[in-house]
Amino acid sequence: MSVERGEPETGLEEERGGAGSPDNFQRLWTPHRMAYIKGQNKPTGAGPDDGCPFCELPKMTDEDGLIVARGGTVYAVLNLYPYNSGHLMVVPYRHVPDYTDLDGAETGELADFTKRALQALRKASGAQGFNVGMNLGGVAGAGIAAHLHQHVVPRWGGDTNFMPVVGHTKVLPQLLRDTRTLLAEAWP
Q1: DSSP code of 166?
Q2: Rounded CA gap, 49 and 18, in Å?
Q3: Which of 41-50, 81-90, 134-143, 165-174 has the lowest mean pLDDT?
Q4: What percent of the chain has pLDDT over 90?
Q5: Residue 151 annotated as catalytic
């Protein structure tokens, strides 16, 4: 093989069956993520009737909607595109975009559910730390800016390794439905 054409001398191109340009990297294919990348099922507008998944999820069964717990004004649900295994979101039922739009009961229950999420994640998975927060507005990184949601992301020592840092890939050790069951059982 000619190195001048950018091909490796080791025969890796043949080993990969000719897939892609030779660069000596292994590939971990995650085609299911294309739905997220392309914005499939993303709301078409800012209103609750514009395809908001956070308004649709409470209409589903807990198992189908990946809902861990339901309260009077908020619910806890697994993130369909998690940063880490067990990544939850606490979401008000009411379709509001900003934290300041919540009333007192919603604010109180959102705080209570966040505490319960921390407890459930510690019990079910031994989480050693957490990232908790909200992205308010599209410019702040909110994927669905029209419906407020608070992220609760469990963390462990060493959970940032070569896969996400170098490979830009997260490896989740468990199916979301199984994670939902464990967290629902651990919910205080």
Answers
A1: T
A2: 47
A3: 165-174
A4: 55
A5: no
User: Which one of 87, 95, 149, 151 is the catalytic residue?
Assistant: 149
Is residue 102 scored above 60 in pLDDT? yes
CATH architecture of 28-186: 2-Layer Sandwich (3.30)
Does the pLDDT of residue 108 top 70, yes or no? yes
> Which residue's entry shows tokens 């007192």?
104
Q: For residue 96, what is the DSSP state?
A: -
- Residue with the two structure tokens 């990184």: 141
Measured CA angle at 138 (ends 110, 61), to 5 deg: 45
Residue 41 one-letter amino acid? N
143-177 burial string, b = 16+ CB within 10 Å, else e?
ebbbbbbbbbbbbeeebeeeeeeeeeebeeeeebe
Query: Are the C-beta atoms of residues 78 and 180 closer than 8 Å to each other?
Result: yes
Cα–Cα distance measured from residue 104 to residue 87, given in angstroms and rounded to the nearest whole number = 26
DSSP state of 161: -
How far apart are the C-alpha atoms of 184 and 132, rounded to whole Å?
19
